[in-house]
Amino acid sequence: MGFHSARQVEALNQSIADLSGDISVSFEFFPPNSESMEQTLWQSIERLKVLEPKFVSVTYGANSGTRDRTHKVIKDIKERTGLIAAPHLTCIDASRDELRTIARDYWNSGIRHIVALRGDLPQGVDKPEMYGADLVALLKAEADFDISVAAYPEVHPEARSAQSDLLNLKRKIDAGANRAITQFFFDVETYLRFRDRCAAIGIDAEIVPGILPVSNYQTLAKFAGFTNVKVPRWMHQRFEGLDNDQMTRNLVGASIAIDQVRVLSQEGVKDFHFYTLNRSELTYAICHTLGVRPKQA
Asked: Which chemical reaction does it catalyze (predicted)?
């Protein structure tokens, strides 16, 4: 490593050290569908709650069984931990009246933050009756919710173009959304360019980067294929030969995510949303590196 490169690394490390509590984090979980997965979920929540996240969100499926589990987990998190719990809510397979009923139930239960999404279309359905902006407007008409929406630095797979996707995000913000949380990504430049494009068309809401700590590269590669997320070749090389070595995969995944947040923090990013996949180890390690740590008694 040359002197100039070493100075760059030192500057990055110093920028992390100087954050000293300026960083805010949030965590995403999904509702468990077995007793063992429920135990894993609560172990992760207990491990991460000491980091005092801004909020924790819980994903939401289109079928009623998953929806009911989301409702239960959200209310349990609020009651058992005191954390701000934010349910995902989609407008697929639900009428406007049903959505209003769900929103009122959340509000009456003390839930004030919702992640509003269109949701995945069922097979054979070409065009939904409602989009994300419609759901945001419905929620804001029902109560003064704090609303997060989704953003796609590498363009939503169904979007006609990058510009139309950006304009759709602006419609969601204009409808009353408070912030956007991005799909996960690995090319930091892609996020930074996207943030600049948002600012250029008048989106002044915060664009929170979604960070996915990777522990299983093969699963990631399949998932990225239908979410339109580019997985750089260098990531393939880093994980090559580790299919049967979970511990090393974890170390590599944490290292990649730490590099992401180091660069983004130097670019002025102060909020990060972690897709935990209901596991706490990698997310906790990354937060520790960021300086997000339990307050000392």
From this structure: (6S)-5-methyl-5,6,7,8-tetrahydrofolate + NAD(+) = (6R)-5,10-methylene-5,6,7,8-tetrahydrofolate + NADH + H(+)
